[in-house]
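Hi team,

Filling in the usual template for the complex we talked about on Friday. All components are listed, including any nucleic acid strands or ligand strings, so the model treats them as one assembly.

SUBMITTER: L.P.
PURPOSE: interface mapping
COMPONENTS: two
RESIDUES: 1444
SEQUENCES:
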Amino acid sequence: MKRIALFTLLFMSIFTFCFGQGTWIWYPGDYDIWLGNEVNNRRTERGAFFPPFWKMDSHYVLIEFSNEFDLKTPEEIHIYAEGRYNVKLDGKLQEGMPQKMILPSGKHTLNIKVHNQSCVPAIYVEGKTVFTDSSWKVTFEDKEWIDESGKASDKSTTVYQNAASWNFDSPAQRPSLFKLDQMPMSSLGMTEVGKGTLVDFGKETFGYVTFHQLHGRGEVGIYYGESREEALSVDKCETLDKISVNNDKAEDFTLPHSKAFRYVYIESDEGVHFDSLSMMYEFAPLDYRGAFRCNDEEINRIWEVAAYTLHLTTREVFLDGIKRDRWVWSGDAIQSYLMNYYLFFDSNTVTRTINLLRGKDPVTSHINTIMDYTFYWFMSIYDYYLYTGDLHFIKQIYPNMVSLMDFVLGRTNADGMVEGLPGDWVFVDWADGFMDKQGELSFEQLLFCKSLQTMALCAGITGNETDEKKYTALSNALFSKLDTFFWDDRKKAFVHNRKDGIKSDEVTRYANIFAVLFDYVDSEKKQAIRENVLLNDAIMKITTPYMRFYELASLCALGEQPYVTKEIKAYWGGMLKLGATSFWEKYNPAEKGSEHYAMYGRPFGKSLCHAWGAAPLYLLGKYYLGVSPVKPGYEEFSVEPSLGGLKWIEGSVPTPHGDIRVFMDKKTIKVTSSGGTGYLVFSSKSRPKTSRGKIEFLGNNRYRLFLDGDGGEYILNYRAIL
Amino acid sequence: MKRIALFTLLFMSIFTFCFGQGTWIWYPGDYDIWLGNEVNNRRTERGAFFPPFWKMDSHYVLIEFSNEFDLKTPEEIHIYAEGRYNVKLDGKLQEGMPQKMILPSGKHTLNIKVHNQSCVPAIYVEGKTVFTDSSWKVTFEDKEWIDESGKASDKSTTVYQNAASWNFDSPAQRPSLFKLDQMPMSSLGMTEVGKGTLVDFGKETFGYVTFHQLHGRGEVGIYYGESREEALSVDKCETLDKISVNNDKAEDFTLPHSKAFRYVYIESDEGVHFDSLSMMYEFAPLDYRGAFRCNDEEINRIWEVAAYTLHLTTREVFLDGIKRDRWVWSGDAIQSYLMNYYLFFDSNTVTRTINLLRGKDPVTSHINTIMDYTFYWFMSIYDYYLYTGDLHFIKQIYPNMVSLMDFVLGRTNADGMVEGLPGDWVFVDWADGFMDKQGELSFEQLLFCKSLQTMALCAGITGNETDEKKYTALSNALFSKLDTFFWDDRKKAFVHNRKDGIKSDEVTRYANIFAVLFDYVDSEKKQAIRENVLLNDAIMKITTPYMRFYELASLCALGEQPYVTKEIKAYWGGMLKLGATSFWEKYNPAEKGSEHYAMYGRPFGKSLCHAWGAAPLYLLGKYYLGVSPVKPGYEEFSVEPSLGGLKWIEGSVPTPHGDIRVFMDKKTIKVTSSGGTGYLVFSSKSRPKTSRGKIEFLGNNRYRLFLDGDGGEYILNYRAIL
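RESULT (copied from the run log):
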């Protein structure tokens, strides 16, 4: 049922005889903002439209596209546009809106200018050699005036970008018509409950409910539930639809709006009848490139449910909760990106989400209004560059990074630190206890420091030395204060915050977790944090998979995989034991029954399918299979596998060059990789042997083997230290 | 044919029994930007779409409207919206998109949130006491998050504005449906010319051509001309339409797009037939509140044609040329505003145009890309405040003034002066000779200085003392340099520019005109400028009515009305003698025949109906009737009438309080005014007498009489000094 894809294939096969391969193009970032707004606006709460509470930006409504050509023979081109447009050939305006024209031979310039308020100005041009692609220039301000004598202005200072595109590769695939893929799914069956009918689809899902043979007269209420209890609670379920039926002829009817649910409860007037219910499952057509298996079936099931959770939440953009919040959140999204690098490795959805979150200038508040979410946004660009090596994107987004950082720098205090000012949401995490959000939070300063480092990195990448120096100086200045301001020598840990110049006594996990992850402390302090904070039950516990993501990652970074394995089994396994078919927004083992569904003061407020619930995807890929990029785009990578108390593990991690496959048991390690160069690092009680290459001894039972990314397999014999 | 107005009346008479008077409301400035974009996008060039070459901004697509109520009894309200919306009562989201609801008695808060990408989010609420008006608050970023327990965020720091509205006072009058008024107009008749039919509408006009009894099969070309020559030039006329006819039944057909023309030439295929042509004249429904008559019939005709010219160019916004450019230009618009204060006194069209020109942040170029046009924009706000006293608008626009001035200040040189940087269009004026646009132009610095003074004034008005001090210091610093940098003591005039630190030798009129108008020089220098520049034929002549506006105003300010009267008769009278029915973009008496129609290297490139051609409206109102505001909104005003060599003059000038009527001949002055207090200042050879009040003697034949704005007439007997 990949209808769009099929259509494209047919279409292209007809046209490729005479035309080059064109694609729809637009101003970079604009389609992402437009499509993302569409998605953000699909959130509903009990039938009411529920858009975001932050500024929603628009695409540029007027765009000029241009390119230069040098043709050996005259060439016919066809022009398609989303919006009203005009065409200039060598600066001369053509009459009307030409749909085709002949380009003369020789050197020529073509300009197409498109206006569209409702959706993104976009064009598709196809000729034998002239067609739209990323070599086209775009600008929102062409400054093409003429003087009194008719002389054209000097456009040399007009700011151009290279056009952006996705995969709309035929004239009929207009970007504004984009839909995710759909396929029909049936339910486990219907049950009469109370005055209505309950339908169970067997697992968390997402799509459009279809009534079969619907007819009669009257009202129908459709109540969605991620749990049975929620669907049956017609007064309290989070999402619902209401339709009026007035049709003597029995027909199939699919609801126009998508919802997330496992259960659907139908209450209809007596005069309304239908045979059964099914659904059109809606999904992003992405392949699972990452994989993980091990000897523990519970862990395998956790990986599968995590993958399904991420697939459900990976839509036009990375959503977090698919039932209720259905907006894009920066702190949640950065985790989706990281998991994505170990499952789909889909770059488009990452950059689309980053562009949407950033929106347009001027910056009037933090991203999603949340201070920490602004910092995660910067950090996500660092990650993106490291995993994909996509320099083009860094260059495109850099000006938007600068203006967002200007906003942040405009709100620092005399010590160059950030505090929550009126209108800022200092989030950190949902916590089952009081968390002080006042003053300078150590957690926020660490994220701020990492963001400044990201700025310096990207300034360097884009060749802006002045900026690089500026951000390096700022990040160094902040870094040097972290210890003085927040490290407590008595408690051997970072304290939570500092208010009115006074260091607090309270220790929380947040800053300590990130100090380890960012490698901001020496190994002595790392060990202190491990003992005094991470493995200390007296410190307030993390109860969201969101912060567990970082907590468990930091423990893995400290080599605590065996401990983490147990935690994964207890926490994610705990949800599975309660019947979870996707992972939740929050999980507290102490809660009972339908207490698990409540949040935000509402009985079904909690999302039971939340991207940040899928953390094991990342943990198992990065810290068990042990694969991560060392240089941007996996040009260099490391493989440091860890059994974490398991008997064997195997799997693959996607990279821009292909997949890296890893197998490990207590005696053997096997690695295959294509593209880039890497090294395998491991510990062995005995001297290891390899089928290829030469093993280096690093001391202290540690060994390294350099890997050629030639697709060949390396087989090692070693003895695991348990 | 004021259909909308009629409909409203009917509608309101039905509803006012049970409902209060509501009006459609939106985020301030947004409707102006949206409607203005619609207008700017209607420009065509020989059938091709021709949008602006600067950044086109959008309205905020997501807006929250809110208000608080204290009701004695429960009240039903009806809700209408342009866009998808939700409704919260006391923070509780209501199901669906309620079209009516009951507000309970007591104190309550109502929030309505609307999304609309295509047009401006707007609402209309009507109840007995609760209805939409400017007391409603609006924001594009409501920051209404809830925490984990369901507690709502503190919204105290959300930035609200008061809602804006216009005259859409019934639910059916959706702002997006707005159209100017229309009425049918017939032509003077049809003539067969060549292969086609020429239709003459008798004068410059604007609207939609109607074919009567159109039928048959084939193509029809419609060629518009402001001149007969243009309409007949099917290859070179600036605007045209092409339609296909395929209809056996003879029917009337009106073209969907409006055009400016006097003549229409039709060439159709043989199979196409029609009986006759008429048009739907489209116009802004505004009354001429200003008036001017005198003993010279040529001057009277000039005033009438100027008024008609301004009426044609006063549309949804103030256009300049209605045939070709059909965009809004800041330098042209400021003159329309000033003329408007002496004809329609329509504030809405002024603020709508100011908002459109400014657009949204970030500022990426000068307004219309032209440096001087940025400065005129600031100056237009000074004028607007002086004439209307509209403090509310100043408060609303002030943040946008600051960000535009930040852009300007970010581009000043080491001397704090502006020079044309790459991408800036330094316009000044169209000139029939070489004009140096390099370096620091004295003209630009004067306008910049006046803009900084406007910033200081508006900062003071809005209570921002820090800004007031800053802009005062900046304007003083710049002012103090004007003399040193640009005054030439030998030539006794301001020189044109300064390049690489060297004062040029060349004197042009521009800076000298504005030095007089802004009162930037003492009376000795004013007299020097008059003789060495303004009345000196050796200085390059002004050939646009645009700069003649300021040139003649400066001469009037120096008391040269008799000279100006001759100039008006020669220049505007010259156009009338050539058959002008509206005033032109440019007029050079030395040109012959159809040379007058050429500009921009095109034979019909010149606009024959250009707002900046209507200058006499302003000159005669301000410097002959002599009426101008002294304090904002005519709270205080002055009347200094001048015969300017005429035998008698009479007329009226509109103010926010009513009209000020003035009559003057050589023996009598009569003045009537309503509202505000004013004074009449005049010269008399003999001791004057008055019917009311007491005349003060000011010395040197000058007298002053204070005027009570009570609607009563003052009659003075005096003896004119000729």
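MY TAKE: The CA atoms of residues 62 and 683 of chain A lie 60 Å apart. Chain A touches chain B through 69 residues (CB under 8 Å).

Thanks, L.
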